[in-house]
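Q: How would the structure tokens look for this protein?
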Amino acid sequence: MITKLHQNSLAQGNKWSIRQLCQLFEVNRAWYYQRLKELTAKKQAAAQLRSEVEKIVLEFPGYGYRRVAVALQKKGIKISWGRVLKLLRSWGLLCRGVGKKKVQTTQSDPKAEHAANLLQKAKQAGEVTEPNRAWVGDVMYVATRREQGYLATLLDAYSRLCIGWAFSQTNDTALTLKALNRALASRQIEPGLIHHTDRGSNYTSGEYQARLTEVGAKISHSRPGRPQENGIAESFNKTMSYEKLFLEEYDTLAEVEKELGDWLEGLYNTRRLHSSLGYESPIDFERNWQKQVQESGLVNS
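A: Here is the predicted structure in token form.
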């Protein structure tokens, strides 16, 4: 109040000093300057906090208030989920999903042999406790201004790390096989790996299953009409759509492939926080697992 009165007096040509105003309102000048210093620091802290929040929201547009809060905490800022929610609402930065119709990509072959859901059994038995124990895959539809196509992906079920992906204008075995071979080239697996997908013909084809048999993988399939049985892959598709694909317009599939590759390697795998991983990135989650294993003496460093 005193500061505002002082500014008004100057604007009106008066010469009321801070000392005179403090005497008028019976306020200690030392207290006034200390209070002014505190208010200035508070405003600066609020501005710095908003700047940090805007950086996070700009880089991770799909983040909700919980992930924003954890990202701030990882930067050393002590703040609660509730306060972040309140701030995001007041600043108009609260994430809202962009709705788009999902295109069905699963085309089953009625003559193909289908496997049981080994992933579900392994998870219930507590066996998916390290990388390369189980992989999950799926195919999603991708549309650009000039082309339409499909994206096949493979994730590690333990760490959610995206280990293989491929694009094609055709939803066939060549597409899923390309993603599989990319994953195999990036990982060292042992016989017994569970490979889980839906019952699409591009996963149940003889060529695809022969490749899995060649590397000693166990084939696992979801039941028809049960997308929740491939929930990890479905969740990844949603994340990728809302946080990358739906936010930009693309001309060609080649453009999407490049942009998505940069997003996967530069952000999703390495820096995006996952609530299912205790708000760690897939890369950090695997590194922490490796560190724990080495410290326990179960493997040689």
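Confidence is low (pLDDT under 50) at residues 5-14.

The two ends are 65 Å apart (CA to CA).

Upvote if useful.
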